[in-house]
Specification:
The protein is mainly alpha-helical and 228 residues long. The protein is built from seven helices and three strands. It has one domain.
Length: 228
């Protein structure tokens, strides 16, 4: 068995998955950014409505730079929305703003997976810094045990990504509930928000699959080296 050919195949599949997921989310958001919502509400309006209605008036909403840079900061209790989402009155703006507020609601409810993900952050930061370094040094100097330690550190990152999946899917579910509860979109627009959120969720699934393939590639390389 040629472990090196299999490892190269893992890279190729990973690249294809990543590109396909990115094209999907970009296409969905671009399409629904062109569709204005009938109420003319902006992403900021939607976020403020959801937060205030759920007893979170102290959670601030701020504009942030970048494209698809929207996120909720649990340490500062801030929803950060990119320029197009913050000011935009499109169906995509409703979807993204509501999704980020979904994370704020998770924080309020002490959602288990969000807490576990936050717990893992320092370990992920360490693994990100030293995982591939350990693998590289191990491969260059034939220190197989060190390389395997590096792989173990990469598994910590994979675990973090796996925990992120239920966090993201739950935030999207909460977003859909809030949009309907406060009548922030028409039935047709709600369908559009679901498409945007589904496409965004698939990028996280793609990230998990890609990282899993990358770890498999490293394992194959190490096994191949041991057999040489």
């Amino acid at each position: 068995m040629d472990y090196y050919i299999l490892s190269d195949l893992c890279i190729l599949i990973g690249i294809i998955i990543t590109i396909a997921a990115q094209i999907g989310v970009n296409s969905a958001i671009k399409k629904h950014k062109r569709i204005k919502n009938q109420k003319g509400v902006t992403g900021f309006d939607v976020a403020r409505e959801i937060l205030d209605s759920n007893g979170l008036p102290d959670v601030h909403i701020v504009e942030t730079e970048g494209i698809l840079s929207d996120h909720y900061d649990p340490s500062r209790k801030v929803v950060r929305l990119s320029h197009d989402i913050f000011h935009g009155d499109s169906v995509a703006s409703i979807a993204v703003a509501a999704h980020e507020c979904g994370h704020a609601l998770q924080d309020k409810d002490n959602y288990t997976f969000m807490r576990f993900r936050s717990f893992l952050v320092p370990f992920v930061n360490f693994s990100s810094k030293f995982g591939y370094f350990a693998i590289l040094i191990g491969l260059i100097f034939g220190m197989t045990n060190l390389a395997w330690i590096g792989v173990a550190l990469e598994l910590v990152i994979l675990l973090f990504q796996l925990i992120t999946l239920p966090v993201e899917f739950d935030a999207s579910k909460r977003a859909g509930i809030e949009i309907r509860k406060y009548n922030l979109a028409t039935d047709t627009e709600v369908k559009g928000t679901k498409k945007v959120l589904k496409a965004a969720a698939l990028t996280y699934v793609a990230s998990v699959a890609t990282n899993l393939l990358q770890i498999l590639r490293l394992v194959l390389i190490l096994i191949g080296n041991d057999r040489d």
